[in-house]
Amino acid sequence: MLQSITEFLRGCTALKNRHITMEILGTDDDAVAVKTVACNPILHRYADGDSLRQFTFSVMSRESGQDAGLSAAFYEALVQRLKEGLPVLAQGQTPQRFEIVNSAAPDEHDYSSTRYELVCRLIYYQKGA
């Protein structure tokens, strides 16, 4: 699931010149990571065994201290990408929508850079168990 979402996000123009990793945010300025956030995946289970599920994830970035305005534009472009489409998932999984859980905000700050984090979830339909 995380791989599918990461590949989908790579289509965002704001990410074209940035290195994206999964699960671990690099220490370089302009680093971007997509990370799994723990949650209860099942929102609703239907009588036939199908279910409505969620996959919660965060997009984190590290920005140099002078780039606060650039990070706002970056996250605006990222949110727009989430509104424009949905990723391709495994067989039996049909994506429904992305939702923003927590908007991008400074999460950690030191003398040279700031870490931002946007928390999202993908709602999807799961066929069968």
Low-confidence stretches: none
Query: What structural class do helix, strand and pairing data support?
Result: alpha+beta
| Count of separate structural domains | 1
End-to-end Cα distance: 16 Å
Shape: elongated
Structure, explained:
The chain is α+β, with helices and mostly antiparallel strands and 129 residues long. It has one domain (2-126): STM4215-like, CATH 3.30.2000. 19% of the residues lie in helices and 44% in strands. It contains 2 helices and 6 strands, in the order H-E-E-E-E-H-E-E. It has helices at 2-9, 68-84, and strands at residues 20-22, 32-36, 42-45, 51-64, 93-109, 113-126. Strands 1, 2, 3, 4, 5 and 6 form a 6-stranded mixed beta sheet that branches. The longest helix is centred in the middle third of the chain and has 17 residues, at 68-84. The two termini are 16 Å apart. The mean pLDDT is 88.
Task: Summarize the helices and strands and which ones pair or pack.
Elements: H1 2-9, E1 20-22, E2 32-36, E3 42-45, E4 51-64, H2 68-84, E5 93-109, E6 113-126
Parallel strand pairs: 1-2
Antiparallel strand pairs: 2-4, 3-4, 4-6, 5-6
